[in-house]
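Take a record:
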Amino acid sequence: MNYFTKAKPYNSLNEYYKQRYGKKVSKIALNASFTCPNRDGKKGYGGCTFCSGGSGEYEDISIAKQFTLVKDIIDNKWPDSLYIPYFQAYSNTYKPLDELKGLYEEAINLAGDKCAGIAIATRADCISDECIEYLGELNKKVPVSIELGLQTSNMDTSNLINRCMTNDEFVDTVNRLRKHNIEIIAHIINGLPNETITDNLNTIKFINSLDIQGVKIHSLLLLDNTKMYDDYKNNPFHILTMDEYVEIVALEIANLRDDIIIHRLQADAKLDHLVEPMWTRKKFIVMNNIDKYLRNNNLYQGKYYKG
């Protein structure tokens, strides 16, 4: 089913939520102090080179307190909004199953009768079969979506950024999750070192080939507290301009399978750590420029997709 609107020539998340739930849906980002197999030595050390240590806030505050703080902000803006608890920072399936159950179910209970589901961000290489079995049962009670970090399908780039995960591991986990009808959102990054627009479009083709329901796209955010920034100072690589990013995203949308929901087209960074590209601070301008580029060039989601 397509969720195109007159305002957007692609399947936007807002329109998807509107048609699915009939009202505003807001994610409540939660930090449950997870780590990552690419940091603790199971797969690697130091994490992906672009990673500054996970996203999200309130690391030292209880889940209940975090939920209430964000919920109060949302309620002031949209009193009738539904909630999706969103475990965001690091790899949020990387704990023993009993601990995961406690965290997930606490968050769902906090949302109460306004819960529209639960979203869990993680890596494809740290979701056990028993965790997937549990998530499959949970998915029968509330919608479960799993966000998997792919970033790129180019294994040379993957090795360069210390992803420490293979494309085969990603495909395997997608298939295991989809056996339980769990919705999957893939994360990709444009502007990684040495990547070309061909690499970007190959990543879209890779996503198109899998049973994936959503995608998050954003530009590389070069942060001063990362290994990638240290590498950049010694061996600078090209940083995308806004115009380059807009064109790449528009072509990615035109090549993306038209049933996939686009959850994000840009991301934010903490300004005190952002080195490049500085234009990412102008989020709404970037979003508007993507829409304009699509319309001016008669592009829309799936135009160039060939199944």
